[in-house]
Design goal:
single chain, Deoxyribonuclease I, Chain A, six-stranded mixed sheet, 14 strands
Length: 253
């Protein structure tokens, strides 16, 4: 199975930029989407008439904000939205599909926001999400994909010194949150396969950042450590346009 993730930064907008043709060409079996910025019925409406995938979605209470979806060619055993914690489940940030051999989780991790005003919320989220994945992993292996809104190491962003502890996505608290998740038994598949490579998955729309490759690696395919041997070919598809993020993928054997 080819598994993929893409923060589309507005599903309805990216559909107008050739999204369905791009996905048909990439041909993932399952793809998690983040930041759909659409209610469930708007997700279905945006993809109406495209029969390549079954569509599941989870939308925020606030319209036009956040939201996740999963498109799949394989029928899941079960589908669940959210972490099961009301205070953290208002923004449609987690969607899980259970398949025969693994749980597929797509996540849009909260951004700490300008001035880091949402960093305390983010820290609570990181702990709760780690516990959630650990509980799933006790049942069967997990593939967790999505925009984790953190660059984990200096190699993962173009200007680490200028952004450290100043910019959302590169504070020590956020770095520690991802470190704790990895220490809990999960693997950053792309970095594990490419320990010294520099490649990004997000670029600001400002200042020609993508053309200059002044970016951040915010999008991940994490897997349970015990299932790493069942995965291969982790990729960052930075040739794919349409959003300020690009897709990432791996193959489950």
């Amino acid at each position: 199975m080819r598994l993929m993730s893409w923060n589309v930064n507005g599903l309805r907008a990216v559909v107008k930029k050739g999204f369905t043709d791009q996905i048909d060409a990439l041909a993932p079996d399952v793809i998690g989407l983040q930041e759909t910025k659409a209610q469930d019925e708007q997700v279905r409406e945006a993809l109406f008439g495209w029969d390549s995938y079954d569509v599941y979605s989870s939308s925020a209470i606030k319209k036009g904000y956040s939201g996740t979806a999963v498109l799949t060619k394989s029928r899941p055993q079960s589908v669940q939205a959210g972490l099961g914690i009301q205070a953290l489940d208002q923004e449609g940030r987690v969607l899980r599909l259970e398949f025969d051999h693994f749980h597929f989780v797509t996540v849009y991790t909260p951004n700490s926001s300008s001035g880091l005003k949402r960093l305390p919320f983010r820290e609570k989220w990181d702990v709760a999400f780690r516990d959630y994945l650990k509980e799933l992993d006790s049942d069967k292996p997990v593939v967790c994909c999505g925009d984790l809104n953190v660059a984990h190491a200096p190699i993962d962003l173009a200007r680490p010194k200028a952004n450290y502890n100043k910019t959302p996505g590169y504070t020590q608290q956020e770095i520690d949150g991802l470190s704790a998740l990895l220490d809990a038994g999960f693997v950053d598949t792309w970095r594990q396969a490419h320990p010294k490579d520099v490649k990004y998955s997000w670029w600001s729309y400002r200042g020609g950042a993508r053309e200059k490759n002044v970016g951040w690696r915010l999008d991940y395919m994490l897997v349970s450590e015990r299932a790493l041997k069942l995965t291969s070919i982790p990729k960052i598809h930075n040739e794919i346009h349409g959003s300020d993020h690009c897709p990432v993928s791996l193959v489950w054997q």
